[in-house]
Design a protein that fits this description.
The protein is mostly helical. The protein has a domain at 14-62. It contains 2 helices and 2 strands, in the order E-H-E-H. It is globular.
Length: 73
C-alpha cells in the first residue's frame, strides 16, 4: 500500500539580471535582441526573471547593493 500526502509546494526559481553585456562587436539592436532571447529562454524554462530595469528600481534606496554579486547575507 502506498500513501500519498499533499504535494509539497514547489518554489519557482527566481533570478535577477542586473546587467547584460555583449562582448565583441555588435550593434545596440543586436545586444537587445540577445538580452530578450536570454530572458525569454529563462522564462520558458519556468524561471521568474527580474530584468535590469526592475533591479535598478529595487536598488534605488540601497545603492551599496548595486555592486553586490553574492547571494550570501
Amino acid at each position: 500500500m502506498i500513501l500519498v500526502g499533499p504535494r509539497a509546494a514547489h518554489a519557482r526559481v527566481r533570478v535577477a539580471v542586473p546587467d547584460f553585456k555583449v562582448d565583441g562587436e555588435s550593434t545596440p539592436a543586436l545586444a537587445l535582441q540577445l538580452q530578450d532571447g536570454f530572458v525569454l529562454g529563462l522564462v520558458r524554462a519556468g524561471v521568474q526573471v527580474l530584468g535590469s530595469v526592475d533591479v535598478s528600481k529595487k536598488l534605488e534606496g540601497t545603492p551599496e547593493l548595486g555592486a553586490c554579486d553574492s547571494s550570501r547575507a
